[in-house]
Amino acid sequence: MNFINQAFILNELEAAEFAADRNPRIIYEERDPFQLSEKKFVKIYRLSKRLATEFIEDVQPFIIQGTRVSALSTNRKVLTALRYFASGSYQLHIGQNLNSAVSQSSVSRSIHEIINAANRPEVMDKWIKFPRTVVELHHLRNEYVLYNSY
């Protein structure tokens, strides 16, 4: 019996040491990106607040809502994905941004889910337009050059 007690105590001590070695979980206060100024919002997400809200409304029917208390809202998922698309940067940078402070795996899942929703014909036909003629293509090229000329 003494051996069983010692094994139990040893197991409890090992579990306590393991728990003490883990980094504490950091929980950030969720900030509402829509409280940013319009200029800063556009700089971060490359869309106006109005267009971002409209895009959220368009993809919302295709987004699965999580059941956990800590599940990301549709707004948070969309804005996290938009931040990634706008920055063209690595997911880690986006996860560390205080306006979308989420884990790298949540960033990855959000991007995947929003891409799938945006690829739906109902959404894609509204938001993504390709030139259909050579004239349209030349017009877009000229606009691009005018807009981006230094």
UniProtKB/TrEMBL annotation:
This is Uncharacterized protein LOC112458638.
